[in-house]
Fold TLCD2 protein.
Amino acid sequence: VSPGLLVVAGSFAAFRLLNRGLERLVPPPPSARRNRWKWRNIWTSLAHSALPNTHNPSPHRFCLHPGLSEDMVGTHPPGAHSLVAVSVGYFLEDFVDMLCNQKLHQSWELLFHHSVVIVCFGTAVLLHQYVGFALVALLVEINSIFLHLRQILLMANLVHTPCYRLNSIINLGTYVVFRIATLAWMTRWLFLNRENVPLATYTVGTVGMAIMTPMNIILFYRLLRSDFFK
């Protein structure tokens, strides 16, 4: 068994244990007690989003690694492979959590999103290639912190507060910079390097970008309409 798969399995188990114990660490407010699993799920997602940005080998530090911008296929800093493997374990855990606790018509978009991420990141983990490309994709987790905080504030019935308003502004700002702009850069990189990437891998990446880009644009519109146009 490859070390990468062991990290994925360990990450899955760790996030599963965290999910089970979160209700004791962060008790749900009265407004969230009707949907306890969702409360735990969001806090688990927040923990994953914060992990790459608080731990030493964070994606934005990796992007400054010499040679990474020239070679996104074979070059990656020490620890980068493990970081991507940890994310695969989280997305697998979140996929299972939603599949077990939420109706399919309510979660199919996120399940579809997670499937694409698991395939793309899993390819990088198994091949030990395109890890740098996956690290760039992990920059979206900077925005995910505020996206998950928004859900927590909604569940805690704190919509009409300055904290929610401030988070909404930061959320939209980081959404444009770290999610939409990042996906645009990744799409551009694939287009410019199509001759240097094997057909199978190029197909996986292109399909992934073709799915993720419109999904994120639609979510941006929903956030804008909900938080600013209502």
Summary: The chain has one domain: 3-228. Residues 3-228 form one domain.
